[in-house]
Amino acid sequence: MPTVVVEPEMYKRIEEVATEYEASTDEIFVEAVRSYLWDLQRRKISEESEIYRQRYPDLRDQYQGQFIAMHNGQVVDHDVDFKSLRQRVRQRFGRTPVLMTLVRGSAELNNDE
Predict the structure, then answer these.
(1) Of the residues 3, 15, 22, 69, which has the maximum number of CB atoms within 10 A of its CB?
(2) What residues are paired with 75 via a beta bridge?
(3) Residue 65 domain-assigned?
(4) HEC profile of 64-81
(5) Into how many domains does the chain fold?
(6) What are 10-48's pLDDT values in tens digits?
(7) DSSP state, 90?
(8) Integer distance in angstroms from the first to the last C-alpha of the chain?
(9) What is the rounded distance in angstroms from the CA atom of residue 73 to the CA atom of residue 49?
(10) Is residue 71 part of a domain?
(11) d(Cα 32, Cα 39) in Å, to the nearest integer?
């Protein structure tokens, strides 16, 4: 197992929280990292969503009625079938956050597919 070096003050705080919540320091550390990574993913999708809204008129003209995948502000794939698109995106990008949405007649995102 890899070793992670934690500053002494940070480790002390982790120990305090672990005691307070009756958890192990490992559990607190893992949950903190998991939460941080989740937050990074949400911020990335939020940034992609803003780019989508800014570029919406061009995206609508080119992709209306299709699902698109946006990564780093660029459309990296598109398809009329969401499952096919998602499968290709996951093969290509793994767990990297990629915005996938249906381009509709309005700039509203459709993330419930």
Answers:
(1) 69
(2) 70
(3) yes
(4) CCCEEEEECCEEEEEECC
(5) 1
(6) 999 999 999 999 999 999 999 999 999 999 999 999 999
(7) H
(8) 38
(9) 9
(10) yes
(11) 11
Structure tokens at 75: 């459309």
Which pLDDT value is given to residue 113?
Answer: 42
Strands (DSSP E) found in the chain: 67-71, 74-79, 99-102
Domain that holds residue 98: 8-102
Residue 107 has pLDDT above 70, yes or no: no
Question: 54, 58, 64, 68: which is closest to 101 by C-alpha?
Answer: 68
Q: Quick one: tokens of 93?
A: 């990008």
The C-alpha atoms of residue 68 and residue 63 are separated, in whole angstroms, by 7
| Tokens encoding 111 | 């993330």
Judge contact between 65 and 103, C-beta under 8 A: yes
